[in-house]
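Open question from group meeting: does this chain pack into something compact, or does most of it stay loose? Before anyone orders reagents, we agreed to write out a predicted structure and look at it together. Recording both the input and the output here so the notebook holds the full record.
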Amino acid sequence: MRAKLGDGVMACGNATKDAEYKLLGEKNTPNCKWGMAVGKDKDDNTVFANCEAWGRLANYAAGIKKGDPVLVFGQMRSHEYNGKTYHTLVADFVQFIGSTTEKRQEMQQAEPQDDFFTVDDGDLPF
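Structure tokens returned:
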């Protein structure tokens, strides 16, 4: 499934391969790329989406494995190479959908990010 929502694009489908995670540049910025099968076109051909995530979202998306059902919301970016135009969905939001108990446990055990901190219930204003 795919939909255009204002300037954003939503795609939902199954990952076609394991996500590729890399650290890029001098600042070691996390980057993660994966592909998804998102539906069929009018001729019954499978439609694929190339997806990419950066930063903390890339750390989360690195857990995507082939066959995982994934929901992605983001912006489309295009570039030309050898006379062909390629499109990539740059993620603003990634969510595993219908995830198994094993996947949920795996994601809960992931290392916390440096900019997150624990808040005690007594610190909340409500």
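Observations to bring back to the group:
Residues 1 and 42 are 13 Å apart (CA to CA).
The two ends are 39 Å apart (CA to CA).
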